[in-house]
Amino acid sequence: MSKVVYLDQNHWITMAQARFAPEKIQKAEEREAAAALWELAASGQIRLPLSMAHLVETARRGLKSSRRRLARAMLDGYGGWHMLSPLVVRRYELVGAFSGTKLTATDVFTTAANSPFFDYTPSIGAAWLRSLLGAAFVRRFGQQSRILRPVNVQEK
Questions:
Q1: Beta carbons of 82 and 53 less than 8 angstroms apart
Q2: pLDDT tens, 71-120?
Q3: Which of 43, 113, 141, 154 is most buried, by CB atoms within 10 Å?
Q4: Nearest CA among 16, 30, 25 for reference residue 73
């Protein structure tokens, strides 16, 4: 499985500059690092997932031409991989904190449709939570607890 490299927005900007305007990157080591990341992503050795934060920050970018180059670079590099909504991730981190189970990169980064949005339930979903939390949680909060039921998607 490929390694996941989550880039902060400023690094995506550097990646876009490396692709479309390398002369704008003043430090040679930054140009080299960006070129290496592009090669690793193209060869499938790493994944460069996007998140909802990337989309929001890109949409707010001032110049249309700069916004387009950044978006093009992101689309070229992300390979369909994105991060689950932080709200979804936090929910499962909290459950894991009480159950002793930790999320892995494969739990957080996916190609599943709608996964960047807050109402997505990943494939680990309700059955996974029920098995972690056990009957006591179900007795206390019931089967219809929001944390235990999928929202607007079907589980795989």
A1: no
A2: 999 999 999 899 988 888 888 888 888 888 888 888 888 888 766 665 55
A3: 141
A4: 16
Residue 17 contacts residue 27 (beta carbons within 8 Å): no
Beta-bridge mates of residue 50: 82
As separate numbers, helices (DSSP H) first and strands (DSSP E) second, the chain gives 7, 4
- pTM (2 decimals)? 0.71
* Count of residues in the chain: 156
| R_g (Cα) of the chain, nearest Å | 19
Residue type at 66 in one-letter notation: S
In angstroms, the first-to-last Cα distance of the chain is 21
CB proximity list for 113: less than 8 A, separation 6 or greater: none
Q: What is the 3-state secondary structure (H, E, C) of 31-97?
A: HHHHHHHHHHHHCCCEECCECHHHHHHHHCCCCHHHHHHHHHHHHHHHCCCEECCHHHHHHHHHHHH
Task: Look at strands 109-110 and 46-47 and give their pairing.
Answer: unpaired
Q: Which amino acid is at 124?
A: I
CA–CA–CA angle 20, 24, 28 (5° rounding)? 105
